[in-house]
Amino acid sequence: MDRTTMAGDTVLLTLISALVRSACAATVSHDFNIGWVTANPDGAFDRPTIGINGQWPNPRIDANVGDTVLINVHNDLGNQSTSLHFHGLYMNGSTHMDGPAQVSQCAIPPGSSFTYNFTINQPGTYWYHSHTQSQYPDGLRAPLIIHDPDSPFKDQYDEEIVVSLSDWYHDQMADLIPAFMSKGNPTGAEPVPQAALMNDTQNLTVPVQPGKTYLFRLVNMAAFAGQYVWIEGHNISIVEVDGVYTEPAEASMIYISAAQRYSFLVKTRNDTMSNFAIVGSMDTSLFDTLPADLNYNVTGWLVYDASKPLSPPATLDTFAPSTT
After folding, report:
1. Can you tell me the distance from the alpha carbon of 157 to that of 167, in angstroms, rounded to the nearest whole number?
2. Nearest CA to 124 among 107, 157, 148, 140?
3. Residue 284: CA atoms inside 13 Å, Cβ hemisphere, count?
4. Burial environment of residue 267 by CB neighbours within 10 A (0 to 12, 13 to 18, 19 or more)
5. What number is the average pLDDT over the span 100-122?
6. What is the pLDDT of residues 238-293, one digit of tens each?
7. pLDDT at 81 over 70
């Protein structure tokens, strides 16, 4: 077979794959009523939080490559306009659906509605959040996952697990932002959060089975804080960063900045003798001060056996994220 024939076959296969995806494409629809709810994810106290359909945490959006996404948004905040941005998506051909208020659209006034309508052609791990004022640190954010039937890693794992990281403020942004922007803050020091969250909680448990491989999709939805992340007793193999597939890179710890995303494979152990901590630790070097009420660590667990204890993570003297 000559090179011309091989090139022609490659083009033909690509076209067939695109036609199959187009034929299988679906419309993913959601109705989002955005309004105030009460939440207390770190157990400190209740505070007003921006939820969707009367609940918080907010719903994850899942779609496949080639799908059309319809998000019907109604603003029930009462006292604020809003908009949604789908972070990391190029929005080719639909930039008016990108969401930044006063850039690609007018903000959605209280009591009004807007429909986001776009087709997704990018696989990977993303998230959506408010792009009006400072609403997403007040809770208006959640993961957005675009599944890929043609992923080069599709046959290398048994199950997907989505994990979000975030920083949590006890005060609302309406109080924090004026102080941040004032003359009384000449160095521009950002507000320091009170707590780190993992899947919007501080006691996440992830049931796993021995001898299996899991694809973790990790999203840092923080307003400010990067985090160091590791799973005790397990190495990870990074296969995607910010929606781009990578050559597999082995690591024992990663550093994930605000708004960044990683996907990595985790091979579970063959025994169920212990459960293992999933640890996130905020990068405190980013903070100008370290308040006494700062809880910069968050722990979840890989649960092999629910009858066994959830041991606290071991103490680390230094952070050393690296890949090989």
Report:
1. 30
2. 148
3. 15
4. middle
5. 97
6. 999 999 999 999 999 999 999 999 999 999 999 999 999 999 999 999 999 999 99
7. yes
Distance between CA atoms of 261 and 228, rounded to whole angstroms? 13
Nearest CA-CA partner of 149 in 242, 22, 10, 287: 22
- 166 contacts 200 by C-beta, under 8 angstroms: yes
23-65 pLDDT, tens digit each: 578 999 999 999 999 999 999 999 999 999 999 999 999 999 9
pTM over the 0.70 mark: yes
Residues 6+ apart with CB under 8 A from 83: 99, 100, 101, 105, 107, 108, 114, 130, 131, 132
List the one residue out of 120, 128, 135 whose CA is nearest residue 75.
135
Distance in angstroms (rounded) separating the CA atoms of residues 106 and 89: 19
Give all domains of the chain, ordered by start, each with its CATH number.
26-147 (2.60.40.420), 159-303 (2.60.40.420)
Structure token pair of residue 221 = 């939805």
57 preceded by cis ω (within 30°)?
yes
